[in-house]
Amino acid sequence: MKEFLLLLIAYLIGSIPTALIVSRYFFQIDIREYGSGNMGATNTFRVLGSKFGTLVMIGDMLKGIFAVALYNFLPYYINNELDRTNLMIGLGLAAVVGHIYPIWAQFKGGKGVATLFGMVLAIQPVVALSCVGVFVVVLYLTRYVSLSSILAGIALPICVLWIYNEKEVFYRVFAIAVSVLIVLTHQKNISRLLKGNEGRVPILKYRDRKKLKKNESE
After folding, report:
1. Of 91, 85, 132, which Cα lies nearest the Cα of 113?
2. How far apart are CA 216 and CA 218, in angstroms?
3. How many CB atoms lie within 10 A of CB 26?
4. 131-139 contacts: CB < 8 A, separation 24 or more?
5. At 183, is the secondary structure helix, strand, or coil?
6. Which of 47, 110, 181, 197 has the fewest CB atoms within 10 Å, counting from its CB?
């Protein structure tokens, strides 16, 4: 019963519509009416810029972190590693479901990638930071948030199964499932990437202007 209550709280935390709050507070708009219509960090980057996109991304990651931390309210799990890991994964997934289907925003949310990585950061920081590193490098090179998210998601099971060789079976299954989920939820983005019309986020503008001037001078 107590576990169910914590799962419900985790879902409600995940349901906090970070992008919607930011768009309404700073711009008096509904982010779902612009860009892809998605209530996530990627669409916020495109519509509101890198500053507010980063703010939303951090907020969505914190939802996963806070949800996972709820296990501390049940003393039994603090000293039981296997059961604790399983509960943490359950709490994190509840937050992700909340982000995708938020009760506070008519059940129309984002894709849950940032919340997923916040969850993994709370469970296994080294694995999460490795995936974040993949995300940052790809974003710097391409400025595609979608591609960065997809490759970071694919990096998760690679890190869990082979690089860090995590032994917990549930965690290994979870990592594979997350990778598949990220790819499936980005099918439209993959299609646009293949066609060459996926939108880039407005970051590193100085670098792009410098390259453009260099190409023009040549």
Report:
1. 132
2. 5
3. 12
4. 131/155, 131/156, 131/159, 139/201, 139/203
5. helix
6. 197
Contact, 172 vs 123, CB < 8 A? no
Q: Which token pair is 62?
A: 């914190």
What distance in Å separates the CA atoms of residue 10 and residue 15, rounded to the nearest whole number?
Answer: 9
Q: Is the pTM of this model over 0.70?
A: yes
Which residues, at least 6 apart from 58, have a Cβ–Cβ distance to it below 8 Å? none
Contact 159, 205 (CB under 8 A): no
d(CA 210, CA 218): 12
DSSP for 27-94, please give it: HSS-GGGSTT---SHHHHHHHH-HHHHHHHHHHHHHHHHHHHGGGGGSHHHHT-HHHHHHHHHHHHHH
For residue 148, how far is the Cα from the chain centroid? 11
The total domain count for the chain is: 1
- What does the alpha-carbon distance between residue 38 and residue 45 come to, in Å, rounded to a whole number? 11
**65 vs 14: CA distance, rounded Å:** 10
DSSP-based three-state secondary structure for 195: helix
Residue pLDDT, tens place only, 49-106: 888 999 999 999 999 999 999 999 999 998 888 889 899 999 999 999 999 999 998 8
**Domain range holding 44?**
2-217
